[in-house]
Structure formats: C-alpha cells, structure tokens
Write a structure and sequence with these properties.
Elements lengths: L1 H12 L1 H44 L7 E2 L9 E2 L2 E2 H22 L2 E4 L8 E3 L3 H4 L2 H22 L11 E2 L11 H24 L10 H24 L3 H23 L19
Antiparallel strand pairs: 1-6, 2-3, 4-5
Helix pairs in contact: 2-3, 2-6, 2-7, 3-5, 3-7, 5-6, 5-7, 5-8, 7-8
C-alpha cells in the first residue's frame, strides 16, 4: 500500500513525465503493437536503470554523478535512482528511434489522404533493425540529452528541483561529455537486446503507409525537445537555449527534406508479409 501511495505521489509530482510516457505508449502501440512495445519499454528501462545504478557507484558509463535524495518521500526511488528518471530513457529512446526511421527507412512513394505529399516509408524488418538505424538512434538519443541535461542540472530554478549533481562539472553547461557517451551506450545496448526479439516476433499487419504512425514518435521527440527548450528560456538561460535550438535545426531540416522531397522509389519486396499481430 505504501508503494502504491508513493507511486501516485510520483505521478502528481512529475505529471509531465507521465504525459510523455502515455504519448510513448500510444505512439508505440499504434506502430509496433503491444507485444513489441512492452518488450521495448522493459529492455530500455532495465538497461537505463542498471547503467544509472552502476554510474552512481563506479562512474560507468555516464561518468560520476550522484542523486542527492532531496525528493525521497515525494517520489518513487529504486535504490538511489528516481523512477521517473530511468523511465524517461524508454520514451526518449523510442522517440529517437522514430526520427532515425524517418531518415533511414526505404521509401515507396507519397502517402494518400490526410498526409498527401509525404513520402511513404516502408516498415520492413530488415531496415528497421539494421545497424545504421541502431547507431543513428543512439546518436539522436544522446543528442536530445544535450538539451535535457543542462536544464535538468538547473532544476532548482524550476519545478524539477535540484535532484543530482556532478562532482566534476563538464564544459557543456556543466555537463561532462562522458554523460552523453553514457546515453549513447544505453541506446546501443537497449536496441542490441531488442532488435533480435523484434526479428523473431510475428510480422506486423500495417497500412500501406506507416509514415503517420512513425511521425507520432517523431512528434514525441520534438515535443520533449520543445518542452526542455521552453524551460531553458523560461529560467533565463537564453544562450543555452539558442545553442540547443541551433543544434537541432539541421536535423529537423533534413527530416523535413526526406519526408517531403520526391524520392526514388525502392522496388525491394516487403520481407514482413501481411500477417496480423494482436494490437
């Protein structure tokens, strides 16, 4: 009962995290189904928790940092790691995965109806579990943290609170570069564990164009980015906010170019087939 009460207090204390989590669940189930979604969530959350637990004790893989326990009793912790922190890795990794899919999936023409004019992405299993998708996802995963972590480090100036610190602050607005390497490591490990399961699961039954469903995850990526940039400007860190904005504009431009610009249509057959899977 105490655990349930603390979990409910965590939701009330960090509602924005659970809004993003709900958006992740909706977007992921629409694209990859519940069977894949719960595996993706469990693997990414478990990997992130183990890495955070390790890093606060050994400095691997994020470098040395510590949670100060200032919100113990207000939100749920596992060991010394806030639940909301490790769970955030799951929806951020899925969002980065969708951006990578938009940039790397093969194209089969333009989509009809509501999304007329957008290129139609082919969601075949070989492409979506490829090494380039894995590496680009890990890069984009670390890239969004280059906006999140600097503002989170200043949590005492907004509603996050001062919950952690680096004993040796880094050059990127106080964040050590090792932290971003750690995020890439979490992304690589999570997808390296998930992709073999993805290949063995029954084929998905999806509409001719998955572009709108992939864009739900892309929207989550840029929604989280906009939230953190908004907070950054709100606390008066204009230079930090502009830096984050300028970092991500080229990726957004490339994404829009690939979705809108007419592309050469691939003639490779669909390896997935059209077998149904429970949603």
């Amino acid at each position: 009962m105490d655990l349930l009460v603390l979990f409910l207090k965590t939701i009330a204390f960090r509602p924005y995290v659970f809004v993003f989590l709900a958006a992740f669940l909706f977007a992921a189930i629409r694209l990859i189904g519940w069977r894949r979604t719960w595996r993706f969530w469990l693997i990414s959350w478990g990997t992130a928790f183990v890495c955070e637990y390790s890093s606060t004790r050994t400095g691997i893989p994020f470098g040395w940092y510590f949670y100060n326990g200032s919100t113990v009793g207000q939100e749920l912790y596992f060991a010394d790691v806030p639940f909301m922190d490790s769970i955030s890795f799951s929806f951020l990794l899925y969002a980065a995965y969708c951006v990578a899919l938009c940039l790397l999936l093969p194209i089969d023409g333009a989509t009809p109806f509501i999304t007329r004019g957008l290129n139609r992405l082919r969601f075949d299993v070989t492409a979506r579990t490829s090494v380039p998708v894995l590496l680009l996802t890990a890069l984009l995963f670390a890239f969004i943290d280059m906006v999140i972590d600097p503002v989170a480090l200043r949590g005492d100036r907004w509603f996050l609170g001062k919950i952690y610190f680096y004993p040796d602050p880094g050059m990127h607005f106080g964040v050590p570069f090792a932290n971003y390497v750690g995020w890439a490591v979490v992304g690589i490990l999570s997808l390296a564990l998930y992709f073999p399961l993805e290949r063995r699961l029954p084929a998905l039954s999806l509409p001719a164009s998955v572009t709108p469903r992939v864009l739900l995850g892309v929207g989550l990526y840029y929604g989280v980015l906009a939230f953190n940039l908004g907070v950054t400007f709100w606390i008066g860190e204009s230079f930090m906010g502009l830096s984050g904005l300028l970092m991500h504009l080229p990726v957004l431009a490339l994404l829009l170019f690939r979705l809108i610009n007419p592309q050469t249509v691939s003639s490779t057959p669909y390896p997935d087939g059209v077998h149904a899977e429970e949603r």
